[in-house]
Amino acid sequence: MTLALASQADFAPAARRRLWIERVTGLGFALPAFILLLLTILIPLAVLLWLSLTNYEFGGVDMDWVGLMNFQKALADPIIRRSLVNTLLYVAIVVPGGVFGALLIAVLVHRRKRTRSFYEVVYFLPVTSTLIAMATVWQFLLHPSLGPVNGLLKWLGFAPVAFLSEPSTALATLAVIGIWQLIGFNMILFLAGLTAIPRDLYEAADIDGCASGIDRFLTITWPLLGPTTMFVLVTTMITAFKIFDTVAVMTRGGPVGSTEVLLYNIYLEGFQYFHTGYAAALTFIFLAFILVFSAVQTFALDKKVHY
């Protein structure tokens, strides 16, 4: 009995020491990731929040604490409200087009044998290209008098269209370019999801009398693509909200402010007008919109997704 108690007394400190070593080792493995998170996300966000509460201007030597005045100014600014509406309209066009267009192409390409690799490369090329360089190409393609697109319209008997110079068509044109850039990457994701679906399910569906392609898509393919669709939907929405390159290169917010988007206005306020504090407040509003929309999409779709 005495030996048992002594062995238990010796074992308790050893177990605590081993537990302490495991905890320290775990913290040591997590420390580099935490430091990286701190340096790249948490500290910049804290600095951004601090700047948004001041009237700091880039290059200035002093600043004043203004509290929530920058946020109040942003909510009352008609230019910011217009850019927010333009951003939401752009997202409303790009997200459905980028997701369902990629899904359609993926379904059509998936069953091909010899030409599948060719179509994958062709549709993925816009993803690998520099958008600023391709924006210049699009400017030429859509030129009212020299562009081949308007040349085709004239040949078909239609009047030429100033795609980037008319307020009624400029934003929709940029949205089409955004879909063109996103659709290849989304197609690859959907192809990966389609490849992961077991073929046995389709064979069982045929036995049960589900021979129509549409029926098999609605009962097997679409439900099993739920996780992929949710990921594609969220990432496409975030990318659409970050529209900047094509606006900066092709329209600069025009014509008549019809393509002014929130991120471009942040760039103007921060790097053209040097209103750093105000630009920081706009950035927080931008991040809040992305966070809210992503959270709503994730929680709304997660209940309907079959894992």
UniProtKB/TrEMBL annotation:
<feature type="transmembrane region" description="Helical">
    <location>
        <begin position="170"/>
        <end position="197"/>
    </location>
</feature>
<feature type="transmembrane region" description="Helical">
    <location>
        <begin position="88"/>
        <end position="109"/>
    </location>
</feature>
<keyword id="KW-1003">Cell membrane</keyword>
<feature type="transmembrane region" description="Helical">
    <location>
        <begin position="121"/>
        <end position="141"/>
    </location>
</feature>
<feature type="transmembrane region" description="Helical">
    <location>
        <begin position="278"/>
        <end position="301"/>
    </location>
</feature>
<protein>
    <submittedName>
        <fullName>Multiple sugar transport system permease protein</fullName>
    </submittedName>
</protein>
<keyword id="KW-0762">Sugar transport</keyword>
<feature type="transmembrane region" description="Helical">
    <location>
        <begin position="217"/>
        <end position="241"/>
    </location>
</feature>
<dbReference type="InterPro" id="IPR000515">
    <property type="entry name" value="MetI-like"/>
</dbReference>
<keyword id="KW-0472">Membrane</keyword>
<dbReference type="InterPro" id="IPR035906">
    <property type="entry name" value="MetI-like_sf"/>
</dbReference>
<keyword id="KW-0812">Transmembrane</keyword>
<comment type="similarity">
    <text>Belongs to the binding-protein-dependent transport system permease family.</text>
</comment>
<dbReference type="InterPro" id="IPR051393">
    <property type="entry name" value="ABC_transporter_permease"/>
</dbReference>
<dbReference type="Pfam" id="PF00528">
    <property type="entry name" value="BPD_transp_1"/>
</dbReference>
<keyword id="KW-0813">Transport</keyword>
<feature type="domain" description="ABC transmembrane type-1">
    <location>
        <begin position="84"/>
        <end position="297"/>
    </location>
</feature>
<keyword id="KW-1133">Transmembrane helix</keyword>
<feature type="transmembrane region" description="Helical">
    <location>
        <begin position="26"/>
        <end position="53"/>
    </location>
</feature>
